[in-house]
């Protein structure tokens, strides 16, 4: 009842219904058996009800999964037989039926991903973002990225898929990044400036990654109880911000002896940097209550642990299994103890900050 009332109140705030109509609809819907599942909201000591974070609202049942399988198989077949320009027509037709009319969440995600892949192929045909002999960030890279926010923004305006807006925001930041890189090259007068100064490249990438993280926080803190689509948009933005922060930070702190960023030849020497960065991301994930931050860093943590174990005299099988055991143990500890750990973190924060975060 409480959750159903909050949905009707939100509809009234958005102007979809009048407050009086919402008041009359609540008892009517309840009497006719329409209700929201009450097992998701968690009652807090302060009387607030909230949904325990990151419930995958894009998976609402096996019906969505079945339709999504059909969408993926059909688009793959069409991609192999039809011209490139026939694919967006199919995406739009399916979006009109499955997204705009039937409001199916998981097919909306799959269609958005298909549109993103189509934009990649389309733009790469006209503006190859790089060539094997390229030593600078040219106009092609900027032109390649420029198409993404336009098409994805138009798709979001029509179908209101949270993932499409998140990808649009990421592509805008990528576009800004290419402009900054080209501006620095132009000011320096050296087309190969970033090959000579990899630290500057890593620093610019870190600034853009922080911008993406701040944008994710903007949507997240605007819906601390995770009840609206702002939370879904923040979820996808965090999923992209975490690896961006990880790799830009590690690149900045671990320039190899050869001057290259993320030099795999010296991976074991940079293992402490990777582990410390992943630990920081885990702490940030606990503070903002986003498991996506923790999940995105696990693969890199596994690579770092593999580098540590490789310094010993174990066989290759021992490397792999030891890495799997350690990473699996970390996942289980954090997963099962997420809420107690988060309560400890929240108690250590100033009340003014903790009050703006999701309840613990």
Q: Would you tell me the overall average pLDDT?
A: 78
Order of helices and strands: HHEEHHHHHHHHHHHHH
Radius of gyration: 23 Å
Alpha carbon gap, first and last residue: 23 Å
- Strand order in space, largest sheet: 1-2
Shape: globular
The quaternary state of the protein chains shown equals single chain
Main β-sheet: number of strands, strand sense, barrel status?
Answer: 2 strands, antiparallel
What does this entry look like structurally?
The chain is globular. It has a two-stranded antiparallel ribbon. It is mainly α and 360 residues long. α3 packs antiparallel against α4 (86-101), α5 packs antiparallel against α6 and α10 packs antiparallel against α11 (271-288). The protein contains 15 helices and 2 strands. Mean pLDDT is 78; it is low at 35-51 and 257-265. Helix content is 71%, strand content 2%.
Key terms:
mainly alpha, globular, 2 strands
SSE blueprint:
Layout lengths: L1 H12 L5 H13 L9 E3 L5 E3 L10 H20 L4 H16 L3 H22 L12 H21 L2 H27 L4 H4 L1 H24 L7 H25 L17 H18 L2 H19 L6 H21 L1 H11 L2 H4 L6
Antiparallel strand pairs: 1-2
Helix pairs in contact: 1-2, 3-4, 3-5, 4-5, 5-6, 5-7, 6-7, 7-9, 7-10, 9-10, 10-11, 10-12, 11-12, 12-13
Task: Summarize the model shown.
This protein has 15 helices and 2 strands.
């Amino acid at each position: 009842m409480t959750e159903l009332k909050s949905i009707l109140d939100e509809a009234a705030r958005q102007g979809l219904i009048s407050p009086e109509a919402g008041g009359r609809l609540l008892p009517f819907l309840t009497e006719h058996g329409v209700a929201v599942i009450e097992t998701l909201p968690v009652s807090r000591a302060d009387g607030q009800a909230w949904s325990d974070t990151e419930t995958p609202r894009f998976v609402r049942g096996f019906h969505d999964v079945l339709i999504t399988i059909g969408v993926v198989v059909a688009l793959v077949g069409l991609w192999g037989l039809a011209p490139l320009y026939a694919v967006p027509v199919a995406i739009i037709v399916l979006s009109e039926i499955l997204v705009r009319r039937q409001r199916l969440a998981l097919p909306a995600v799959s269609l958005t991903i298909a549109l993103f892949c189509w934009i990649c192929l389309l733009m790469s045909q006209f503006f190859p973002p790089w060539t094997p002999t390229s030593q600078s960030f040219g106009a092609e890279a900027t032109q390649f990225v420029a198409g993404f926010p336009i098409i994805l923004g138009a798709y979001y305006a029509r179908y209101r898929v949270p993932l499409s807006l998140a990808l649009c925001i990421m592509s805008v930041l990528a576009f800004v990044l290419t402009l900054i890189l080209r501006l620095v090259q132009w000011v320096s007068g050296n087309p190969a400036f970033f090959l000579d100064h990899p630290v500057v490249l890593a620093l610019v990438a870190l600034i853009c990654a922080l911008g993406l993280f701040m944008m994710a926080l903007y949507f997240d803190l605007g819906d601390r109880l995770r009840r609206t689509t702002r939370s879904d948009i923040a979820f996808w933005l965090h999923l992209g911000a975490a690896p961006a922060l990880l790799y830009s930070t590690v690149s900045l702190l671990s320039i190899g002896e050869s001057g290259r960023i993320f030099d795999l030849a010296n991976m074991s020497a940079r293992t402490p940097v990777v582990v410390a960065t992943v630990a920081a991301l885990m702490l940030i994930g606990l503070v903002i209550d986003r498991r996506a931050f923790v999940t995105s860093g696990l693969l890199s943590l596994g690579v770092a642990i593999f580098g540590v174990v490789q310094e010993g005299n174990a066989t290759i099988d021992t490397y792999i299994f030891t890495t799997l055991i350690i990473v699996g143990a970390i996942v289980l500890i954090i997963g099962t103890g997420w809420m107690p750990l988060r309560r400890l973190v929240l108690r250590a924060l100033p009340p003014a900050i903790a009050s703006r975060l999701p309840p613990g």
